[in-house]
Amino acid sequence: MIDCGSICEALLGDCILHGVIRNDKMEKRTFQWRIEVAGAIVTAPLKGSLTQLRNLRNTVHITKIATTSAITGLGNGLLHGVPETINSTKAWKAAHPSASAAQ
User: Fold this and answer.
1) Quick one: which of 8, 65, 72, 83 has the most CB atoms within 10 Å?
2) pLDDT tens column, 34-90
3) What is the full DSSP assignment across 59-87?
4) How far is CA 64 from CA 2, 20, 22, 24, 37, in A?
5) Taking the domains of the chain in order of start, what are their residue ranges?
6) Exposed / middle / buried, residue 12 (Cβ in 10 Å: 0-12, 13-18, 19+)
């Protein structure tokens, strides 16, 4: 769950850095901020799934008591957001080439 959330967070950060903010330090931006800013990159349902994934990931970080069954029960549906995030960010980057690639 932690890894899946981190993958989605990194993909969103890469797209935001690619298309919107050139001189920003993405490591200082939270996953929640990235989800909110990524409105043109992801669909509303995916935004909801990513928010749930972020909440679950943060709960795992904080409590350190999550059981395998709890992760499986809560996370299985959220894991579908990972390939959807990959596809969404891939499509968005293909449709929005960077300024340096256009030269």
Assistant:
1) 8
2) 888 888 888 999 888 888 888 888 776 555 544 555 555 555 666 778 888 888 989
3) HHHHH----HHHHHHHHHHHHTHHHHHHH
4) 11, 35, 36, 32, 29
5) 2-96
6) buried
- What single-letter amino acid sits at 79? L
Distance (Å, whole) CA 70 – CA 81: 18
Specify the pLDDT at position 97.
Answer: 79
Distance CA(35)–CA(47), nearest Å, equals 6
Closest CA to 70 of 80, 49, 56, 58: 56
